[in-house]
Amino acid sequence: MDQFSVSGAKFSIFVFWVFLATASANFYTNSEITWGDGRARILDSGSTLTLSLDRNSGSGFQSRNQYLFGRFDMQLRLIPGNSAGTVTTFYLTSQGPNHDEIDFEFLGNSSGNPYTVHTNVFSQGRGNREQQFRLWFDPTADFHTYSIVWNPQRIIFLVDESPIRVFNNQQANGIPFPSNQAMRVQCSLWNADDWATQGGRVRTDWNLAPFVATYRNFNINACVPGQCSSDSFRNGAWQTQGLDAQGRNRLRWVQQRFMIYNYCTDFNRFPQGIPAECSQRF
């Protein structure tokens, strides 16, 4: 694994604990199944959770707590084989029409074709900030770690400790940023074959159902609103985490080789000019 650092934390180690809200790797205590009528199952004494999808329904779960800033890690093994039409998710969201949201979505594909990692950031109900990536490994062969770091300065998306995207806080320039709505972790597996795979050209093959995605090592280091003092908020790497020179180089490596869509370069979509935040640097 390449070693590189972000402000105050080396990614090849990247172990830190803060006395805010620290929850580690037990789905019985950290999460609750929200839908699926038995299609979501907690296994291995709470260390593993599986979501399944068939023709009748998908399934999902959420964190028990809401959080205002934090680091959120999840290991995932995605659906093997022909996963066309399926969407597996790991994201943060608040509620209501003006909600905030930070998304990892994994768009399935036909056998032999790669998954698409779809990322987005919503603030005050406005999204349309999509970036999409391929992965440099097979996400169905083993577990890999997907992480969201959300602090008052920026949002960092990480895959196996490698940064793939940074969204900076530019509220001072009038650009909305998720900063005042507490969010829960949400995870789900559902059918979206009208758009998810090759623009909807490849549909879900229900003869292969049930489709199963597996989650484990659900780790949270985050601030629970009302339980986070100003002193404790200063104790922990994620609160001010950013990229140093090595981290920026790794981000460029990922984006140059594996990014397949960036709303900031979609001039046909924004004929009046790309969004203002697209001029930001990481």
Question: How large is the count of helical segments?
Answer: 3
- Characterize the largest beta sheet: strand count, sense, and whether it forms a barrel: 8 strands, antiparallel
Report low-confidence residues grouped into runs of 5 or more. Answer: 1-19
Portion in helices: under 10%
SS-based class: mainly beta
> How much strand?
35-45%
Write the H/E string, N to C. Answer: EEEHEEEEEEEEEEEEEEHHE
**Gyration radius, to the nearest Å?**
18 Å
- Number of separate strands: 18
What is the terminal-to-terminal distance?
22 Å
Overall outline: globular
Mean pLDDT over all positions:
89
Give structural notes.
By secondary structure, this protein is mainly beta. 8% of the residues lie in helices and 37% in strands. It contains 3 helices and 18 strands. The protein has helices spanning 27-30, 230-233, 245-258; strands at 5-6, 9-10, 21-24, 31-35, 40-43, 48-53, 59-63, 70-77, 86-93, 101-107, 116-122, 131-133, 144-150, 154-159, 162-168, 184-191, 211-222, 259-262. The strands form 3 sheets. Strands 3, 5, 6, 8, 13, 14, 15 and 17 form an 8-stranded antiparallel β-sheet that branches. Residues 1-19 have low confidence and may be disordered.
Short description:
This protein is mainly beta.
Which helices and strands occur, and which strands form pairs?
Elements: E1 5-6, E2 9-10, E3 21-24, H1 27-30, E4 31-35, E5 40-43, E6 48-53, E7 59-63, E8 70-77, E9 86-93, E10 101-107, E11 116-122, E12 131-133, E13 144-150, E14 154-159, E15 162-168, E16 184-191, E17 211-222, H2 230-233, H3 245-258, E18 259-262
Antiparallel strand pairs: 1-2, 3-17, 4-7, 5-6, 6-17, 7-16, 8-13, 8-17, 9-10, 9-16, 10-11, 11-12, 12-18, 13-14, 14-15
